[in-house]
Protein 1
Amino acid sequence: MDSINKLLDQDRQIIWHPYSAVNSDLPIFPVKSAQGVRIKLMDDRELIDGMSSWWSAIHGYNHPVMNRALNYQLESMAHVMFGGLTHQPAVDLACKLVEITPKSLQTVFFSDSGSVAVEVAMKMAIQYWYSRNKPNKQKMLSIRHGYHGDTFAAMSVSDPVNGMHSLFASSLAQQFFADAPDCKFHQDCTDHDLRSFLEQLEKYHHQIAAVILEPIVQGAGGMRFYSPTFLKRVRELCNQFNVLLILDEIATGFGRTGKLFACEHAKIEPDIMCLGKALTAGYMTLAATMTTTEIASSISNHEPGIFMHGPTFMANPLACTMGLASIDILLNSSWQNKIQQIENILKIRLKACLDFPQVKDVRVIGAIGVVELHHPVNLKTIQPQFVKEGVWLRPFNKLIYIMPPYIINKDELCYLINAIIKIISRMK
Ligand SMILES: *Cc1c(COP(=O)(O)O)cnc(C)c1O
């Protein structure tokens, strides 16, 4: 017990956690190990994981096939620089990504995190228009309630209120924002849903390099789901106004919404796509920005003749190996059935939450279940309650949500759902 308290003390004093303060009085739980859908704490309590470590651990933890692939790659090489050198894991993963993503996407730029993949996407769009003699197209158009990461450019296209843009005002690039659509996933989008988006395009398209948004599911900006018909219209309008479309599939990619990539719901293809999170199933930090042959050649064949980006750990071999292994595991499983089963259970069982006056909305798509409350939760009190129930969930603001590893079974999923129902029932 002493060693646990010492660890917690040191952690509290010197380490920043995500969106946290040092010396915070929020509870924090030390983990000993993780296996399958279970996270084991240092005090030996076991929690059923409902978060997939923020969308990433889709096959659960400590997966034997993933572990073997990692060890195998480690014996030949952990890392080499990617300037002037290449290797099999990078080439194999790039080929695989080109094969499984929408067919217009034919080239791959590897980076280390989702935020950087978004930065790279924005730079690609700007450099493309520069190469087409339209150097004034440097701005982005996004929709409110989005989330694209925490670095400056990624932050500049995330929701201005959630992202506290006012705090960073004079350091942050000014972008254009349209209202998010009100149409739910199963509804058709109306002219009303598109009005603000169309207005921004009409007014500013000469300055706009690209539209950037999360397809179908807006994740960390509010877990909102919108209609594929909106996305379809956005694609048409981007073509009409000579603006590129960047789809940020960092959260939605690799099956989470029931399709391999969420843009498939709308049967559209982006000009640039960002991948991250589940790309390596939570093993290594890796992201990718993909684009078309047309954009890639235009950038490459025009002064300065190169794309202006190149991270130190670009295409890290261990990370690429994990990407390949994860995609193989996913595509060799009956993932569509699995996600469908998770969706069915979430839809049937999570509905019970609607009986509580504290609950404003319950929504489910694929392996994502969201309970929206009327008021923000108190993380300090609710987090220990979930842990006491034996589940790992991490609510934010008014949202309690589940996005479990795809390997979760029915009993484990129902256990998670029951814990949510129990804890909401105790709320005042
Ligand atoms: C998490 C996320 C990001 C940022 O990824 P990081 O790896 O945290 O930098 C960007 N876009 C979306 C949609 C995300 O969910």
Protein 2
Amino acid sequence: MSILSLLREDLRDFGGYRSARSDECEGSIWLNANESPQPGTAEGTQGLRRYPDPQPPGLRSALARLYGCRDDQLLAGRGSDEAIDLLLRALCPPGAGCAVITTPTFGMYAVCARLHGTRLVDVPLVDGPGGHACDFDTVAAVAQREQARLVFLCSPGNPGGNLLPLPAIAALAQRLRGTGVVVVDEAYIEFAQSDSAVALLDAHHNIAVLRTLSKAHALAGARIGCVVADAMLIAALRRCQAPYPLPQPCVEMALAALESSARAATRERVERAVEERDRLQAAFTALTGIRRVYRSRANFLLVRFEQAQDAYERLLAAGIVVRDMRSVPGLGDALRISIGTPDQNDAVLAALGASAGLARVAPPQADPRDRVLA
Ligand SMILES: *Cc1c(COP(=O)(O)O)cnc(C)c1O
């Protein structure tokens, strides 16, 4: 069965907007898009008088090489946030349909579903001694019962930091074959130094993987992310996307960030972030007033405090802003702290009462375990 059977029925013959870039013509005088014939005069705008390529082939193939897929299996857009929205719009009829999430998780799945009128069913992650774990059997059963077109998984999880096992993701996709698409949001996978679900695409055409340049590649301001999936699904998503989704300056920045020297620097930065994460995790475990530090495979730590308000205020008093998670069910005592530079991380430890000097000489633990104090 083709993946196209999962598309909204009313969109199966939808061609999307035909932009000036849709027709492939040869020409030397281009008067088909109502662009200005002269460049603008403001500094830096000279190269921008034309509409950009909707999917610049150079960027697409650089991203496809980076993520290990074919060019036609990848759609670039305005961050992976856009991909979440596109998947919902292409697969769920507006005001109907259902998607499964596993809380606590990234908030955009619920925001996009709400805007589109898609009903959400939650199969909460199980908060056990090893961290947050996905109950894949229940996810599969609920998705089947509710005829969910989409299941949103996040690996490593935000905010939990937990990595989902690829064999379980593959088995879920197998069970939902013909009924739904398993979306694996890998915004932080670089920090897990682990295999991507992109490797599962050949065997499972109902998996869609979200990747982004926003986190490990230090390019959040450029808004470049992508969805990697079956080529037919990608083509359908493209028809639902804005005509010119990628601003030219952002494309150029992304290409610069994907050159080999920049990629080497990215790998270095990721290594440092992972070292710092593990150092901070170990240091937190030794602090008093901390209930739990979840083992993280991402570039943040989820920490539960005896006195979360007090911790939040002490950090703020030191000028450090962290993410307050206390409104999230099950995380009423938690803060999420992004990994900063070594000095910034020391400032976090100092504000929370540790001696930063001591914390830094503590040997980094290769495999820090969760410590449950409460
Ligand atoms: C940050 C984040 C994103 C957003 O990525 P963009 O590419 O910047 O839109 C997606 N998913 C998760 C889980 C995130 O934490």
